[in-house]
Write a structure and sequence with these properties.
The chain has about 290 residues and is mostly helical. It is about 45% helix and about 0% strand. The protein contains 10 helices and 2 strands, in the order αααααααααββα. The termini are far apart.
Length: about 290
């Protein structure tokens, strides 16, 4: 299990995180991703936000076997059906129902791959603190904190809307991937490993729930009004450690090995299945 520090507030605010490490995706790249997703949303209104996508990509890194882009792309942005004509080691055919052109598709996949590689590198690096420069930093948003910083008139316009809690959308994206590849998350026979996986997933599931605790910190701006409970901050920290654990558990097990089922053999006095008309013991069973 990943080593953990004892600092309860292990998750830096958005502003702090930006100053502590150099992410694979710059702010400009993240803006570009948001623009692509907005454009895709014009064709499919159910297109998720980048935070959801980041949780989804994190789950792919933690999944038992590598999930190909031909599988995960349509599940995230399309109809969920695997792309059958995807060639190996070649660019994916244009998914015209998702992207406006091949250039947009290629750029989206390029940026996602940069993020996938970064997540894998971070989760494969041992650390004892989530404040470390090379620690895994999920794209978790504090929407309530961001809204609290808006002018009063703009805040009033959003009154009554259901605003997600800190990291809630990210956790929903993670579990969306888990739910769509259940066979890759099936508990192994090893009881200790099975419990370890269940405990780790429970920590992520906890973040999919609403934060009902007393606001104590603002994760968007540490100078802003309190928007997130201390309990929620600790929950998110536990969820991040759970990602480290899940990555290492499945790497240690490797891909699943499909069971080979032997075809039932006829009895010695049964007719031979070859159709010869003779008994099995006198034909192919001889």
């Amino acid at each position: 299990m990943a080593a953990q520090d004892s600092t309860p507030n292990a998750i830096p605010s958005d502003a702090d995180a930006a100053s502590e490490f150099n992410p694979a995706l710059s702010n400009e790249a993240l803006d570009e991703l948001d623009a692509i997703l907005d454009d895709v949303r014009g064709r499919n209104e159910e297109t998720p936000q980048w935070e959801f996508c980041d949780g989804y990509l994190t789950a792919l890194v933690c999944t038992r076997r590598p999930i190909s882009v031909a599988e995960w792309l349509p599940m995230l942005l399309g109809d969920g059906m695997e792309i059958d004509d995807a060639p190996d080691n070649e660019p994916l055919p244009l998914q015209g129902d998702i992207f406006k052109d091949a250039a947009q598709q290629a750029r989206f996949l390029e940026l996602c791959q940069l993020r996938l590689d970064e997540i894998a590198a971070q989760l494969d690096t041992e650390t004892d603190s989530l404040d470390a420069d090379d620690a895994f930093q999920p794209e978790c948003m504090d929407m309530r904190g961001a809204i609290s910083m808006l002018p009063e008139a703009e805040r009033a316009e959003m009154e009554g809307q259901d605003i997600p809690s800190f990291a809630q959308v990210w956790a929903l994206g993670f579990m969306f991937a888990v739910e769509n590849w259940p066979e890759e998350w099936a508990a192994p026979r090893d009881r200790d490993a099975s419990k370890w996986i269940d405990d780790s997933l429970e920590k992520i599931v906890a973040v999919t729930e609403d934060d009902t605790g007393k606001p104590a910190v603002n994760m968007y701006d540490d100078q802003g009004p309190a928007s997130t409970s201390q309990e929620r901050v600790e929950q998110v920290g536990e969820a991040i450690w759970a990602c480290y654990d899940l990555r290492q558990i499945w790497k240690s097990f490797g891909p699943r090995v499909e069971s080979v089922r032997k075809q039932a053999q006829p009895g010695r006095n049964d007719p031979c299945p070859c159709g010869s008309g003779r008994k099995y013991k006198k034909c192919h069973g001889a």
